[in-house]
Amino acid sequence: MTFNLPDREVITDFSVAEVEQHRDRPSLVTLYLSGSESSALDMNDPEYLEFEYMQQFRAVIDSVFTGREALRALHLGGAGCAFARALDAGHPGSRQLVSEIDAKLAKYVREWFDLPPSPRLRIRVQDARETLDTTQATWDVIVRDAFVNQDVPAHLRTLEVAERASQILSERGIFLLNSVASTGLKRFNSQAAQLLHCFPHVLGIIDPSVLRGRRYGNLVLAASHSEFPVALIDRAVRRLPLPARIVSQKDLEKRAKGAVVFHDADIPGFLIEDDETSHDS
């Protein structure tokens, strides 16, 4: 099978992109950005998700929004748009906006991967924080999944980000956050504290071995104005190829005690200016 994929490294505005086909599953491709796994897509199966944290994201969404109903989703960080593509396939009629700061990458992923066309999926070339702060829409799902040098940018992990997300979510809306354990569980506790400050309902999803510090992996947090169907989500994540466990709100509240809450003012010289060059594709 032949796909329109690059056969060598490609320079983008902020990274070096490389696409690799899996030998045992040629339809599965992985996008690497500056040497790090960024996205994985099955070119023949848009609902397929390779990354464990994305499977966990979907478990939360599908437990809250049952029946494949159409959703309004905002993605803070895009890369290969694997999760947005799967959400489009699983919830037909959805309208999604992906904020991607790398203009060349946004152009290339449209060429390389079978992504839903606009208006089903719009890719906005803009800093994700500016997109979050300026959007006038109400969203059912907000996904924070942006990384620079294998870490979440500082201006996307402050209390003000959680506050803004809480303002623009629908009543049943979900704010989903992806972090990595390599930044330490103190970061996880701090993020939990910020969410608990802004939302009445918060939960975590994590591989128990990561929680115990035995290996690195992704840390997922979810927040909402409405109560989560915790038992349903718990069953869903335990049935994943790599089973995970729920970190309850009670446990998160314990972890959040004494955690340092990170503010915009803590970022030296922080300022997001209006970007007149932003555009959608």
Automatic annotation (TrEMBL):
Biological process, per Gene Ontology: polyamine biosynthetic process
Database matches in Gene3D superfamilies: Vaccinia Virus protein VP39
InterPro entries: SAM-dependent_MTases_sf (IPR029063)
UniProt keyword terms in alphabetical order: Polyamine biosynthesis
CDD domains: AdoMet_MTases
PANTHER family assigned: THERMOSPERMINE SYNTHASE ACAULIS5 (PTHR43317)
Protein name (record): Fused MFS/spermidine synthase
